[in-house]
Amino acid sequence: MSCKCREWEAALLTDRKNQHLQLVLEGKGAAAPGISTGFERFAFEHIALPEISLEDVDIGTHFLGKRMSAPLLVSSMTGGPARAAAINANLAEACEALGIALAVGSQRVAIEGASASGLGLDLRQRAPTIPILANFGAAQLNLGYGPDEARRAVEMIGADALIIHLNPLQEAVQPEGDRDWRGLLMRIEALARVLEVPIAAKEVGSGITGALARRLVDCGVAVIDVAGAGGTSWAAVEAGRARNPSEAAIASAFAGWGQSTSDAILSVREACSDAVIVGSGGIRDGIDVAKAIRLGADIAGQAAGVLAAANTSPEAIVEHFGIVIAQLRIACFCTGSADLSALRRAPIHRVPSALPESLFAR
């Protein structure tokens, strides 16, 4: 491919990413009415005499071999180069200060050499101690990506793992989408065999089932990020940037598609006792984080919920997550949970019309 063609394709991709970011900031990526994460269907049993000190509650954990102060991951987000560079710098500084993990948005533009978009070793220099996850789309594995591109993604930011994001719905409703998904499980398995860092498989808002998670783990994937329905709907985002009413109608019909985040966590944990699970998709606050962990997640991820802060400053991000962390600590305190291990055993019940009791046997 000529340099001019590459530059033209990169410009189109960058413009698309910037449109995505703006639509999410404007709140135009909301799931269809009535679609939720499902966390509202679960309630912790309140312990009126917890017999622990709030000050002593330990919400620290380990992820990708590193100690974190809280079980939190800033999930992948992206945008045009100028915006992305500022957002990534803000996120790296804030995540380092907070002691939480950071997953970058798609590195496709940077891998193909058009623009770094703030995705260079400066990111690792700003965040030397936290887990950082690199990222590109599964569909790229059918378009020439392989171990070389994966290593480039990891090395350019000093990442501890590589996310392969799974977004078939978004690609299907996107006019420029990559729609050939044949043989990708085999390609992921081949990559997992040779890549020096763990691979994470992540949906982008429609959820991962337990059955698929089991197949991915059996192929060598170490981390499953369920990214369930109830948060940002990329079908709704694509409807917002459609070129005509027909494209908008096709995309908007899928704004409620997928498994809820709570259902996905339960399903994946039941199928994959050996996997590291990230509970993401519509995480609103520290109580949602507590519920995600109780249902089977190891850590919880948030993207759209922190995007406005990320677009502002590192201090705004620290303030945002300071609230989430305080809420999580209080949820632990009021369930009598001195740490996350105890929280995973905390009494919880379902409200009417929720899931069967058998799912809560532990």
UniProtKB/TrEMBL annotation:
Subcellular location: Cytoplasm
Catalytic activity: isopentenyl diphosphate = dimethylallyl diphosphate
InterPro entries with a match to the protein in the record: Aldolase_TIM, FMN-dep_DH, IPdP_isomerase
Gene: fni
SUPFAM superfamilies xref list: FMN-linked oxidoreductases
Chief location: cytoplasm
Cofactor: NADPH; Mg(2+); FMN
Enzyme Commission number: 5.3.3.2
This protein's name: Isopentenyl-diphosphate delta-isomerase
GO biological process, one term: isoprenoid biosynthetic process
Subunit structure as annotated in this protein's UniProt entry: Homooctamer. Dimer of tetramers.
